[in-house]
């Protein structure tokens, strides 16, 4: 598959994303043009019983743009991947839905976000969740490993979307679920490649 992105392009995009989300790890408040935290979770229709169980310091670290769980049901005992887990809020919801017999793995490229996710997990005493550093558009899991893959506002940041979508397909069991919500670009397209790379994370 032909790529439009050089190794330097990908490194620039990764550095800019890390710079942005290091700040988000401290607090998402004021970092986005849309609601974050508990207010966003309520507006997006997340499970109210689970939401009530979250301490404010956990709920307030949410910065997604949609509710992936509105797209499909999580069953008890499922093995789930949260791609681009951020502070782990969707990971936590998935863990509570799949229960002790299930397992949820959250991956992200930003260490500071993973540190926040682990802190949130530990605050809730969850034992069916683990977090790991993401390798970007390569998933280090075997074929058919997951029942469900969720992703919230992350694919827009991935330069080569076809690559990661193929990886999702490879890692899902036959009949598995991909619960993906994201942002789309509207307005005048930036045509010059270098300018697109420079503004990618925005």
Automatic annotation (TrEMBL):
<dbReference type="Pfam" id="PF13847">
    <property type="entry name" value="Methyltransf_31"/>
</dbReference>
<dbReference type="GO" id="GO:0030791">
    <property type="term" value="F:arsenite methyltransferase activity"/>
</dbReference>
<dbReference type="InterPro" id="IPR025714">
    <property type="entry name" value="Methyltranfer_dom"/>
</dbReference>
<feature type="domain" description="Methyltransferase">
    <location>
        <begin position="75"/>
        <end position="190"/>
    </location>
</feature>
<keyword id="KW-0808">Transferase</keyword>
<dbReference type="InterPro" id="IPR029063">
    <property type="entry name" value="SAM-dependent_MTases_sf"/>
</dbReference>
<keyword id="KW-0949">S-adenosyl-L-methionine</keyword>
<protein>
    <recommendedName>
        <fullName>Arsenite methyltransferase</fullName>
        <ecNumber>2.1.1.137</ecNumber>
    </recommendedName>
</protein>
<comment type="similarity">
    <text>Belongs to the methyltransferase superfamily. Arsenite methyltransferase family.</text>
</comment>
<dbReference type="InterPro" id="IPR026669">
    <property type="entry name" value="Arsenite_MeTrfase-like"/>
</dbReference>
